[in-house]
């Protein structure tokens, strides 16, 4: 670890050539831009407008060697107990066919069980089903919500409404769009003990009952790693879709948590979703470090967080269908790598994950881009766009959208000098662009898997375990203590509870 401290210091003390100087090298684009042929169509990963170049890349490769990155990557794919703080493997890659044979076989069997239930619903064997209310929280909700928003805009076999917030307004909004007689409830909870999810589910059962459904529990599909608890709760065993305990919540949409995706789009689309992710798995696992687009992206992230002191990273989707992607990546990256302790239990001693935030172009250009161009903070930006438009309107809409996306990256890099400081743009501000040929289930699978592995690389380089999330537990425990009554808190909290009438 001492050697790594020296290497991190060496990274921070390297010369910092401007982006314009880096582009003086004729091979710059070839060195930092790759196009992968993927099942959903080619994706261009362009990191040329970042400050990543030979010198920092060389130091980061030495850090990777010192931290045994290759060994950790192999542990991820061979089912080792890489989630050491919780004593289990991380087998989300096995859900798409890459992992220890036993885990892959188990995942395939559970996928077949899910596909059978999806087919039964589509064939009317559970009666007329027009809607599904999917109840979960965190990864159990964000993944399905992203996929449904991105892929089901042209109509779905079953309309899916994702509810995560314990605020009853969210559940009521779903109720208003559904008929109890033709609605199923998907209850997504890994442990089947999540307070928010179970509370929302009980209210959904009451809504079904009030709507004339004689057997509300018969309308529930359970998605869980604790099938016995689901059956004990009242779900029919034939409508419980299990997944492995070693699949973490924010990595779980490849498992039974993806049931609403398959129900909305069909089993074939869900298989394509897995295929897209599988292709990125193979690239990440086997491509040499210098050609590995996942490693390149993570190296740039580390360069800005560790050497340039950047405390945040922005993500902007220039496609309305991907408007939930920044929120999805926010959880993936900040819950995985927002740690101050290494996997060995020692203090990290350096920055961990930056704050991930973002929005949708072109909306964000009129809201936050002022700070990106002229603010005092240096914030690396990712742009994500799709060449093939997702609507039937005049192509002028899409041409303007893409033109704005590419223009923002160019402007951040080039800047503009003016004697009027209010109109002076410093430039030399980094961005990366991910440009997809089309948006389809396979492409979305590839995008998500790319970011999963990107997050893993940063964790491996810093010595963090990205698969636990103990930081989310303390607030939940205090909330339960409030609900149980009798607990004492600080004067501010006590006053807030009193003002809200909570005893």
Description:
The chain has 503 residues and is an alpha/beta fold. It has three domains: 2-66 and 287-468, Glucose-6-phosphate isomerase like protein, domain 1 (Rossmann fold), CATH 3.40.50.10490; 92-271, Rossmann fold; 472-503, no CATH class. 46% of the residues lie in helices and 11% in strands. The protein has 19 helices and eleven strands. It has helices spanning 2-12, 19-22, 28-32, 54-66, 69-78, 101-122, 139-151, 168-176, 195-210, 227-233, 259-265, 267-286, 293-307, 325-337, 369-374, 396-414, 441-462, 473-484, 491-499; strands at residues 33-36, 43-46, 131-135, 159-163, 183-188, 220-224, 240-242, 312-318, 355-360, 381-386, 431-436. Strands 1-2-11-10-8-9 form a six-stranded mixed sheet, sandwiched between helices. It has a five-stranded parallel sheet with strand order 4-3-5-6-7, with helices on both faces. Strand 1 (33-36) and strand 2 (43-46) form a beta hairpin. The mean pLDDT is 96.
How is this fold's topology laid out?
Elements: H1 2-12, H2 19-22, H3 28-32, E1 33-36, E2 43-46, H4 54-66, H5 69-78, H6 101-122, E3 131-135, H7 139-151, E4 159-163, H8 168-176, E5 183-188, H9 195-210, E6 220-224, H10 227-233, E7 240-242, H11 259-265, H12 267-286, H13 293-307, E8 312-318, H14 325-337, E9 355-360, H15 369-374, E10 381-386, H16 396-414, E11 431-436, H17 441-462, H18 473-484, H19 491-499
Parallel strand pairs: 3-4, 3-5, 5-6, 6-7, 8-9, 8-10, 10-11
Antiparallel strand pairs: 1-2, 2-11
Helix pairs in contact: 1-4, 7-11, 7-14, 11-12, 12-17, 13-17, 14-17
